[in-house]
Fold this sequence. Notes:
The protein is 30% helix and 14% strand. The chain is an alpha+beta fold.
Amino acid sequence: LSAKLFKLQQGKCPCCSKPLGDNYHLDHIIPIKRGGVNEDWNIQLLRQQCNNQKCAKDPITFMQSKGFLI
């Protein structure tokens, strides 16, 4: 799954557009604590720093706080 996501995301973090590097995290787009599920469509790769900032926040609210218009 990680290799597939890395290729789909072109090696970039969807939150900050920086290269993922080697220390990336698997992240639930909709956090488990918010009703998310452990399925491929709900998983993305994030840089460690972005994942730590996102934590269990609502994904839309988090991305809007980073300047994305969702």
